[in-house]
Amino acid sequence: MHDTQKVGGSIPPRRTRILFSVNIQIIYEDKNFVAVNKPAGLLVHRVQSKTKEATLVDWLLEHYPQIKSVGDDCQIRPGIVHRLDKGTSGVLLVAKNQEYFDYLKKLFQRHEIEKIYLALVWGKVVPKEGIVDKPIGLKPGSVKRTVFINKAKMVKSAITKYKVKEYLLASKAGLPNYSLLEVAPKTGRTHQIRIHLASIGHPVVGDPLYGGKRASDLGRLFLHAYSLEFTPEQGKKIKLVADLPSDLTDYLYSVKLGLR
């Protein structure tokens, strides 16, 4: 087995560049791919061609113009091998050439890239470890997706593993319980983690789509793509890490102080 090389985390980023008012941290880079720490609130790519909102792809094309012809849909998402929701922060891989795009794509298809997310959810999750194995499809008459129901469209299998990292239980009456989870999706369906956690009664804090009536003043999803681990085509196994951003660590701290 290859040794694991941890990249990111407490190791200083190689450099920080600016996309308008957004900092883009480069976690790791070589001749074949770059791993960036996507901020929450930033679209990876445009959904509609008329959208004027700045995207990660805009920044990538400015700094890596060679990727404009890389990928399966290079007009929309050049170099992008996998996706993160707009509200999710964390590690995102971008291929610099078609050969490596195809290689990374195969690794994802074979489930040979281990993804770990950190999610703060409402309530005390029991048991401490589990697997959610529920197909996901489009909810009729809605943009939302849902776990399988008879009328759902485009239903696909979906599997998510979770493990409780820490319980954050209410220290006084009137405050909610929380659980901080390590989540490992084994498939890559849209909104999969959010849907699966909501389906077991523990939606992600700050989720406007699947969080129900629970209110949060966080202002974003508490969902962060913490790490990706895989073996490059040549070389040792590497682990790319993006630590929790300050808005999420501040929120956790306030919960522990009994302020939320």
What does this structure look like?
Residues 32-199 form the Pseudouridine synthase RsuA/RluA-like domain. Keywords: Isomerase. By secondary structure, this protein is of the alpha+beta class. The protein has a single domain, classed as Pseudouridine synthase. Helix content is 15%, strand content 33%. A hairpin with a 6-residue loop joins β8 and β9 (145-147). The termini are far apart.
Whole-number count of domains: 1
Unreliable spans are: 9-16
Average pLDDT works out at 87
Terminal CA distance reads 44 Å
What's the name of the CATH homologous superfamily?
Pseudouridine synthase
Radius of gyration: 19 Å
State the major sheet.
11 strands, mixed
Number of strands: 14
Would you state the CATH class? Alpha Beta
Strand/helix succession: EEEEHEHEEEEEEEHEEH
DSSP helix fraction: 10-25%
H/I helix tally: 4
Shape call: globular
Beta-strand content bin: 25-35%
CATH topology-level name: Pseudouridine synthase
Query: What is the correct CATH architecture?
Result: 2-Layer Sandwich
Q: Find the structural class using helix and strand composition.
A: alpha+beta
Which terms would index this structure?
11-stranded mixed β-sheet, 3-stranded antiparallel β-sheet, 260 residues, 14 strands, 4 helices, globular, alpha+beta, Pseudouridine synthase
